[in-house]
Amino acid sequence: MKNLKYIVIFFLLFTETSCDKNLELVNPNDLSIAAIGQSESDLTLLLNGCYDALQKNHADAYRWLDNFSGISFGDNNITDGASTPEEARYLLCWSRSYLLIGRCNELLSIIKGIQAPNTAIKTIESEALFLRSYAYYQLMVLFKDVPLVTSRQSFADRLVKKNTQAEIRTQITKDLDYVIQNLPINNRYPKVTKGAAMTLAAKVYANFSEWNKVSQLTNDLISLKKYSLYPSYDNLFSEAAENNSEAILSVAYLSGLGEGEAFSGIFSGSPNQMDPPLSNYADAFYCTDGKPIGKSPLYNKTKFFENRDPRYEVNILRDGDIINKQPFAAKFSVTGYFLQKYVRVNTTAYRDDGPVDFMIFRYADVLLLRAEALIESGQLTPEVYQLINQVRSRVKMPKVEDVEGANLTQAQLREIIRQERLVELGLEGDIRWFDIKRWNIVEQVYNSITFRKRPYRGEKTLFWPIPQTEIANNPNLVQHDWWK
Questions:
Q1: Is 276 in contact with 73 (CB distance < 8 Å)?
Q2: Would you call the peptide bond into 147 cis, given omega within 30 degrees of 0 as the criterion?
Q3: What is the dihedral of CA 426, 431, 434, 437, to 10 degrees?
Q4: pLDDT tens for residues 369-387?
Q5: Quick one: 453 exposed, middle or buried, by C-beta within 10 A (0-12, 13-18, 19+)?
Q6: What structural domains does the chain harbor?
Q7: Model pTM?
């Protein structure tokens, strides 16, 4: 059950930043700080509005990012290489992130005026700083250089310039240092915790290959002894598993109040055809002997779903599975596959207003990220094997030593950890896309796609443009050179 319902009680918190320069310089929608109290209850209401903006950011966009990573297909101009700065999806991701940032800045500006904040108010402040940092993390990785706004904006100072990715990263890590010190280990679900802040910081440092920092943060998080792998990978992505031992940070959804999600349901009269997996992803799952399908004697291409890593069936719908009271057949999908992770397959409930919470961060990701940090920093210790084996053992896949061997080289272990992150964390939003970007293998991945060849456009593929409407409405915003 959800213990926190994200319902916005009041406000227009986000001062508009994309306004016509000919409008009057007094914003009639501007919210007076004097109208908002400084009590803990008032601040909590505003914080709920920040969480609501986080929810909006994930409601129907999170799985779409997998289309760029070579594991699912989305029929759009971006993946076809025909996008321009006018592309609506660029603006959607941009505006949702700045909606969250604006609401957090509004709350933080009020807290800044409190002379002696108590522990509860410091916790609220830290939650807002975390949410703002998370929004900037996504913007920084998706768009690279973007405006860094850290205070409440008035209508008069709306024409901001963009900052460098390095400046944004510095702000994020500075804020997260404070957040880690001030957030509790336990918080009311699904609010932010110390572990979530550690995870985000580790991901930020991983993006810049600062492996010693990643190693320290993941070690500290594991040492909290708060998290553990949920016993059943089969049920991990269901409503029944919400608030489980593996969930470090989740976005909560609730049906019936307009606070539901649009990713777990199905279309009326047919299976969910959104973003179907590609054969590249399906073929990546090893057989139960721990060997790739091209090397395992257990693989039968006429019954390709048999004798496979159990995570295959959790992620991908197979022939004969019942969905919407009818058996699925590959012919129903343009790629030959349908996704199953996070999808309610045996239900008559359709899309929109779904009840399933989405895990932004989970413990398996942290274990594998720590293993990667050790590998990349040259610490090829038994712990690397233990971390990977811990994740594999949940689905009863063989240990690394039993298949790939012991005393492996850095290059061999790097290949293993990247494979493990793919099959464990695929179809979970930005994870795979952000992974292949920081590994510098996007072009390689795109060249391997066999369904509708995907053009690689260099920096145009790696970093999105500033939306054209933002450029048109703000003369101080300069488009990235590679998008001009």
A1: yes
A2: no
A3: -20
A4: 999 999 999 999 999 999 9
A5: exposed
A6: 12-183+440-484 (1.25.40.390), 263-351 (no CATH)
A7: 0.91
